[in-house]
Design goal:
By secondary structure, the protein is mainly β. It is built from 1 helix and 11 strands, in the order H-E-E-E-E-E-E-E-E-E-E-E. Strands 2, 3, 5, 6, 8 and 10 form a 6-stranded antiparallel beta sheet that branches. The protein has a 5-stranded antiparallel beta sheet with strand order 1-11-4-9-7. Strand 5 and strand 6 form a beta hairpin.
């Protein structure tokens, strides 16, 4: 069971869409299906961005209620601020923290037509494998 399919689970936090406003992603539970994933990777695929600044932030929570920005020391890579000059890129950010719940939030400024993007959290290294898929 060392294959990727048995040890990784990809969850949407921001469903890919055209966006012009600030939004918080949906919660991703690292204890999904009793697998208790030890690692997480945030993947942000960006399509066309026509205007505005779209600033991404990885957030964490112990209780799925109180959210805080992840400290830079618990991230591998940098959270992007995307403009029309940086579109059509895939960003990857590693998470080294210990909180159970994760999500991606985006703050949008000066957007009329906005941009197309999403955010996914890849959960890895489950304590129980193979991963159960719904």
């Amino acid at each position: 069971m060392r294959d990727a399919y048995s040890n990784l689970l990809v969850k949407n936090t921001l469903t890919p869409a055209a966006r012009t406003a600030t939004v918080n992603g949906t919660t991703v539970d690292r204890a999904e299906d009793s697998s208790h994933f030890q690692d997480a990777l945030v993947v942000i695929p960006v399509g066309t961005v026509t205007d505005g600044t779209h600033t991404f932030a990885v957030q964490e929570s112990d209780d799925n209620s109180s959210w805080a920005a992840v400290a830079d020391a618990d991230l591998q890579g940098t959270e992007p601020a995307v403009t029309s000059s940086t579109d059509e890129t895939v960003y990857e950010i590693g998470y080294k923290g210990k909180k159970r719940y994760l999500r991606v939030a985006v703050t949008v400024a000066s957007a009329t037509t906005g941009g197309v993007y999403g955010a996914h959290i890849v959960l890895a290294n489950p304590r129980v494998a193979p991963v159960v898929r719904n």
